[in-house]
Every structure is written in structure tokens, then in C-alpha cells.
Amino acid sequence: MYSSLAARSDCALLRSRRPVHVCAAPRRKPSPARASLVSLATEFYTAWGRADFPVLDRLVATDHVQVDAVWAVGQDGGRENLKAGIGRFTSIFQNSRMTVLTAAADEDKRQVLVHWKFEGDWEGQTTESTGLSILDFDQDNRVCKSQVYRQLTEPEKRMRQQQQNKD
């Protein structure tokens, strides 16, 4: 009986041509701790895009570890190194900005997975890059580690090529 009802119901949906949305589990409101981590990650990337160093000083641990195959192979340590890298990167572009597209937090691990987009103007054109990051937070709600996965922007590709041609 159930299978024939399901079959009739499926056929009716197909005939109606309405979109069918399937959800495995009902959406729950995020816990305050999870929402707080996502908010901090969003604030971190907004400050990153603007090279807002006073905000980054508040949000990033002094012993921060950056893992980024584009900027540096391996691990690069310290908040000051992170800020220097952000300063170099954002100085290439006019109107640089970062937007968090999606973020999901694991409050037990104190990690946030962030899908972000960078945009900036270079030589009169807007360039963009998207990437994924895993941000780890310490007990003081500061970013203590960031693992970044992204592609080079077009200006970075050109500058890297120019540097290789000089060498």
C-alpha cells in the first residue's frame, strides 16, 4: 500500500512540474557558540579585505599559524607575519574586499570552515578569487590557525611570472 501511494504521489509531482525540495533533516537554529564563531570568522575576513590591522590585532592570536600553499609553502607563524602578508596582498589592489559566502562552525573543535570571495580592482579591472579556509579559534576567541586553500589571482600569476623571468 505504501509503495503504491508513494508512486502515485511521485507521479503527481512529476506531472505538476513544480520543483521538489528534499531535506534530510529539519534545519535547526545554530547554537549561540556556533553563531559566535561564525560571526568572528566573518569579522576576521571583513577586516582582512580592508587591511584593518587594529581589528586583526583584536581577532588574531599573537602566535597565529598560517598554512597557505600560495603565500608560503608550509607554515608561517605569528600575527605580525599574517598582517604583513595581508598588507602586501591588499596593496596590489584598489578597493579590496572579502566576502564570506558560506560558513559552518564546529563548536566542539572551535573551528569554522569558510567559503570566501576576494575582490579588488587592478589596472582598471575587477579581479576576484574564491577559496576555502579552516579557521581554528583559541579559548580567547582569537584565530590561532588558518589553513587557506585557493588559486592565484590573475595579478599574482603575472607578478610571479615576471619574477621567474628575472631569475
From TrEMBL:
Domain of life according to the entry: Eukaryota
> Which residue numbers delimit the SnoaL-like domain?
42-143
For this entry, the protein name equals SnoaL-like domain-containing protein
Report the source organism.
Symbiochloris irregularis
